[in-house]
Design the sequence.
């Protein structure tokens, strides 16, 4: 049966339920994209492989209280990260761990992504001139401080667990001042250059929804 189009003097017929649902989803997608800041990268349609990885990551994480929102977050962040981590398996697993460890520490996951961006450019084997290691550039002396001298800071979850805990401690010590907490984390207290870099990365690449 052909449906009539709306026009002067004509009443438009309602689309069938399946088409109506599709229109609602399409409208929601448009509103989601409009709500993104101007610097956002428009997400591409996920491949079946990526969709499966995201669903599994959300189910395994334990930090996504709403699976639908969890899938949206992972898809969005995965799209932003793919030029640095082309392998979708590694990308989704890293995002899952970042979300879990950040949530565990009481930090916004986007903030942790911005710190990783500036600290290591998402290179899990990065070593600074001062000897800081891994994604969040944790100094090795922390391993002795916590009684785990033989732990591996290149191990992603170990690095994230320690880095997020340290950053949250400094945030609490700074009474919620993110700029001061970041300076403490980097060891550049009293200066703005590091905090500005992280906050710029947060605002332009890893912004909060």
Sequence:
């Amino acid at each position: 049966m052909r449906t009539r189009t709306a026009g002067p003097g004509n009443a438009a017929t309602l689309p069938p339920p399946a088409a109506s649902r599709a229109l609602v989803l399409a409208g929601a997608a448009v509103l989601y994209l409009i709500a993104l800041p101007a610097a956002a990268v428009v997400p591409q349609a996920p491949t079946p492989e990526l969709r499966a990885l995201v669903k599994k990551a959300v189910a395994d994480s334990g930090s996504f209280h709403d699976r639908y929102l969890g899938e949206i977050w992972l898809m969005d962040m995965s799209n932003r990260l793919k030029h640095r981590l082309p392998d979708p398996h590694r990308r989704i697993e890293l995002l899952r761990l970042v979300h879990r460890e950040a949530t565990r520490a009481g930090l916004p996951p986007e903030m942790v992504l911005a710190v990783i961006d500036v600290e290591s450019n998402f290179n899990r084997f990065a070593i600074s001139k001062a000897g800081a290691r891994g994604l969040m550039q944790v100094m090795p002396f922390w391993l002795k401080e916590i009684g785990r001298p033989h732990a591996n800071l290149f191990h992603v979850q170990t690095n994230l667990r320690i880095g997020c805990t340290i950053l949250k401690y400094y945030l609490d010590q700074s009474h919620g001042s993110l700029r001061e907490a970041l300076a403490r984390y980097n060891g550049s207290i009293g200066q703005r250059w590091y905090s500005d870099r992280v906050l710029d990365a947060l605002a332009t690449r890893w912004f909060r929804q």
Summary: The chain is about 60% helix and 0% strand. The chain has a mean pLDDT of 79.
